Fold this protein.
Amino acid sequence: MTTTLDRITPPPVGAFPPLALPEPQRYRLTNGIEVTACNLGDEEVCRVDLMFDGGYYADIRPGTASLTLLMLKEGAAGKSSEAIAEAFDYHGAWLQTTTSSHYQYVTLYTLNRHLDTCIGLLADIVTSPDFPQPEFDRLKERRIQQLLVQNEKVDLLASDTFLAQIFGSEHPYGRIVTPAHLERIVTDDLRAYHRQHIRPDRCHIFVAGKVTDRLLDNLERHFGQTWHGPADKPVADPVYPIEPASQHIAITHKEHALQSGIRLGLPVINRDHPDFFALKLLCTALGGYFGSRLMSNIREEKGYTYGISSSVAAMRYGSYLVISTQTGTEFTRPLIDEVFAEIERLRHEPIPADELTVVKNYLRGDMARTLDSPFSIADYYLSLKANALTTDYFARQDEAIRRLTANDLLEAARRYLEPDRFYIAVAGDREKIPELSLPR
């Protein structure tokens, strides 16, 4: 007797169990640096993240934080940039630097058998950068050229304009770094920034992968016993007032542009607000995944764009919801009208049960991917630290997603998605963009 395999009827979808984030191990080096270790996996590889308080929010001269971090591997402890790059390449290691609003990260991926060499080299570039003038001149010129290229892209211009609308053009979140800003930066600015921010009392270390005693011993030797910061205490970051624009619609002119870059959004609640998870779930239904309402309507049905998304950005001093897209200039107004039509649907009609199930499963599946690897788990702990969140945040978010109802989301939409509070930023050819307005 032969059995025919049913390839038409899908198998039933099983229940998604509650998610739990593995608890890391914590250590402290002799100079006080805290080490968070995600000791998971069988491969003889590890990742080391050095996280420093600072970021571009602490810039005295805009662009300094980013240039300082980029310059670390351009010469340190007497080693040239070529020697540093060749050493990492030879040992199969990879180094990257990242600057965010309030933190900076130096990240090293390395094989465990090369820990001694690679951790020592990492310590050199972090603790003893040389900031050589020729490399600085080349790097600064490259960054200036990158900015000039970015200023030709309507999508980036719209993003810059939108952030300036939400926070004010003088606030670090909304300030636009220009080539003129970079021209004024000199190597002494980088040295001053390094002294103030790249120091042990502003450092937290995260390690992930196969964490061995050898790795911990190397961290103690290179970052615990021998790294002593300056005697002066860190200077507190200045506090900038948030000054949203009085005009809710802004058009940045880009002559002869064939497309419009579009940003729509508004200030919203922070992560510590009890409604934050409802707002995030609502934002996901609106435009947070490929099958979202904005994608289904504006991409699939109307054909106005290749992609459109919505997200909530939770910053330390203010959060905002933003809808991001790009479209042909002739579709600018109808696309914006359709966005507000979808927002009105969320404000007046409960999300159907089957759609809500899909959105919840998507969000919880995205959370489950956090548990895929030691590196992704370490990323989550980095995010918790950056956002001053407790370790139970993961479980609380999962529980909230499972608990929230369609009526909860309807109330959140009415409370937080008020059309007349939205800001609209469009970058494109002003002569071809029709008059824009918020819904009445």
Observations:
- The mean pLDDT is 94.
- The first strand starts at residue 25 and ends at 28.
- The chain is about 40% helix and 20% strand.
- Residues 133-150 form the longest helix (18 residues).
